[in-house]
Amino acid sequence: MKTYQQKGKDTLLILNQRTVKKILVNNVVLLRGNINYTTFYLQHGEEKVVAHTLKFFESLLEIHGFLRVHRSFMINPHFVKEYNHEQEFLTMSNGQRADISRRRKHTLKNFVE
Asked: Model-level pTM?
């Protein structure tokens, strides 16, 4: 069984049966959910895949300023490089692209514009 817990203010400690992954929240650029897996895209090009849904991490990361902009994407607004209004997507500082859902684009008005 896999367990997860938050440790400290700026560190997310992910405990699995065999591995322990320590992720600094300030280095997370983007989270991408894919069914029951979440991929953490970090600042220096690293990727960490965790066997848990994006919804699980949503409550842990919202207190750090992260925004859920799509059912598959959660972003750190500090790393937004460009906002394409016409096609409704964000380009992050590491080159990743995050789609914005029609119902969640109102959450970006205060942060991006």
From this structure: 0.83
